[in-house]
Specification:
- The protein is mainly α.
- It contains 6 helices and no strands.
- It has one domain.
- α1 (2-27) runs antiparallel to α6 and α2 runs antiparallel to α5.
- The longest helix has 32 residues, at 34-65.
């Protein structure tokens, strides 16, 4: 039963990350309203929460509830999945920093000013994160079936 609960928590956190990234990407515009900017900032905070949950729950599954750490660490797809997670996490720093910097502009209920270059960079980073998440899902499916061992 514990394995099923932790599997559920892991999937819920993955869906949470996907949902927050899709929401940020969909709301992003060259002229976000104050409300849209606040929602993007909230999504980014939830993204961080879900990322931490994935790490904690995922490693609990690796060491205590699934096939054992030897199985996972021997899998090239597990290592690729972890590598992609790290790359996505590093990429996510840019949007987080930008959203935090918007706070100063938004103090009086004003919408943030988003220069065209910043908008393009944010859109590209969010899109790349989503594509890399698909790669993680592929790695997870391959790893779970023992491919590459």
């Amino acid at each position: 039963m514990n394995s099923a609960i932790f599997s559920f928590l892991h999937f819920a956190a993955v869906f949470g990350i996907v949902g927050t990234l899709v929401a940020e990407w969909a709301m992003l515009s060259e002229a976000p309203t104050h409300r849209e900017a606040r929602l993007m900032q909230a999504c980014d905070r939830w993204y961080g929460f879900f990322a931490v949950a994935i790490l904690i729950v995922g490693f609990l599954r690796v060491f205590y509830f699934e096939k054992g750490s030897a199985y996972y660490f021997a899998s090239p797809f597990f290592r690729a999945k972890i590598g992609l997670f790290v790359v996505i996490g590093l990429l996510s720093i840019y949007p987080t920093v930008r959203f935090i910097k918007w706070r100063a502009q938004m103090g009086n209920g004003q919408a943030p000013l988003v220069p065209a270059a910043e908008f393009r960079a944010l859109r590209a980073v969010l899109r790349l994160e989503l594509v890399l998440l698909l790669g993680m899902v592929l790695c997870a499916a391959l790893m779970a079936r023992g491919i590459g061992l």
